[in-house]
Amino acid sequence: MTQTYFQKGFGLKVEVRPVLAQSYHSPVVAQLKALGFEAIVGDARLKLAREFGFCYGVDRAVEYAYETRQRFPDRRTFLLGEIIHNPDVNQRLQQMGIVILPDARDPITRYADIQRGDVVILPAFGVPVADMAHLGEKGCVLVDTTCGSVLNVWKMVHRCARDGYTVIIHGKSYHEETRATASQALTHPGGHYLCVRDTREAEVVCGFLRGTVAADAVRARFVEASSPGFDPARDLERIGLANQTTMLSTESLEIQEMLRAAMRDRRGDAGLEHHFRAFDTICSATQDRQDAVHAMLDAGDLDIMIVIGGYNSSNTQALASMCAPRVPTFHIDNPACIAASEVRFRPVGGGPEARLTDWLPDGPITIGLTAGASTPDSVVGGVIERLLTVRGYDVAELMTMPTDLPAVAPPVL
Fold this sequence. Notes:
alpha/beta
């Protein structure tokens, strides 16, 4: 029988490695790393987070997409939405002839053009169970790039649902990953889920557990973020916690403790174990990038923080949310967002792209940089070059710095 499902690559790493390096590597980033993640050019000090950009899961997904085109050069190839939330990466895939299908909740409508023998790439976020079943019936070739961290969350969801616990997911109900994760709960008889986006929504659930919020209020609040037929009186008796892997980890832990306390108030210490479960499903790469930003912020010497990544990237949004209360922060998605007199950025908390003039103060400045897990080094390097250019410096000054010397102190100007 011809194989139609692939999850472990095609053994073509050597073949695709040169084009991946050309597309996503940055000598500027490599140089800044070699300088200890920090350099001073003129009156500008650049500090790069020690963990940033492409994580293992994203790197694997992108490589797998390139291998897929190498393996099936003459097949029609589709990608279910964005492979990751980065416009540069997705544009490059489209230029290779991969068709990105727009999002749609109905599998029949979304996959109407896919035929037997076509190649379909599943994104790093995963896809809902119903989509997988529909695609399987079509007889197309499935290339699954679902991140291992996401698969780990799914295992926890299955365990909860199998044992009769409703899964409460800290995540955005409309996000591809959360929708795929939630669908896993429905594969078990009586399985249910509820998605809470933040502590405010978690407080509604806590209120119900404590008897201060009515069931109808819960149903109304989560009508688009709960399983079909969700009944708070029945489905919040036993709950298990999971999270979208790219959410802010401190918030995930806070929501976990809020719900634990509320269930303890409802059932007492003796009944807590039977009615509440929590698992550590925070992605290690997400945690590493957030920890690196915490370290930069705690150092206390930043004048501006630039967070680089797609505007729809949840993990990039989380990094920007961490920085904004402590230092002026700009979430940008590409180098073109930066000009000498203006910056274009996504406001923390959402909304359309904003513009700010006179955003870079004159005189000595320390600029922090980090990037979401779906941002390639090439984009980060482009931002660094752009920053130096608008300050009136040539990137060659950075590239020619000796890398075998200890970091120097900032100049006194």
